[in-house]
Every structure is written in structure tokens, then in C-alpha cells.
Amino acid sequence: MDFDLIKKIIKIAEEADISGLAVQEGNLRIEVKREMGGPIVVSQPAVAHQAAAAAAGKSKESAEGGEPEGTVAITAPMVGTFYRSPSPDSAAYVEVGDRVEQGKTVCIIEAMKLFNEIESEVKGEIVKVLVDNAQPVEYGQKLFLVKKG
Q: What domains are defined for the chain?
């Protein structure tokens, strides 16, 4: 991920005084949104990162046994700090047993003072949360298990 590109996109959004901007290049899509008077939130749908992590992690999954049958992992698209909710006082985006649709925000990863909304690219039910709130995560680390369907 090119953080300089993200910074440029944020600067364009601020200077143009617009509430949102989306940029896509190949499999990488970055969305910058700002609510009135609120902070800028950078969203990066996880589809490209899940595909790359899945391709890179095939041999690891075979050795570790992978996910339980019928489940798919939502993985971290970047290094940062994992947050289950938009603020300490707010409810978690998703809980075990919740149904998710493609595009639903499931968590936030803070990286370089930017809050990146991580969206589900699968439709199904959250069966396990694999990371504790406010914990550091690595690129490709499994965050949630989703039972497809």
C-alpha cells in the first residue's frame, strides 16, 4: 500500500472541501469520507487484500489446517491497530452470530493516524472474532471467521 498516495488523496479531499472521494487502481480501491465537522476516514475494501493473502497463505493454511469447512477468513489488509467499534463508547461493528453482507464495515484498523474501515467481501455469519480490541495486527492476519451463506 502506498501511504503517500493515501495522503495525497486526503489532501485533495480537504482542499476541495468535499465529503468523499474514491480512487481505484486495479484491485486497489481507496475511499476517503468526511462527515460534517468529523475526522477523515479512509476505507479500503478488503477484496484485493484477501485474494493476495489467500494466494500467499495457501501453503501456511495447509500446514496449519486452515479454516473450518464452510468458513472464510476476513484478513487485515495492512499493519495497524485493530478496533471493533468506531469509538470506545460505541457498540462493536459486528458480534459473533451477526449476519454480514458484502461491503458492511466489520472493524477499523488504525495505521499512521488514519482510521481505515475494513469491509466484508463475503456474505454470511460471523462465527469467530480472532483478535482482541485495540491489539496490533499484521498484514494478512485473520481477523474474523465467516460462515458463507
A: 3-148 (2.40.50.100)
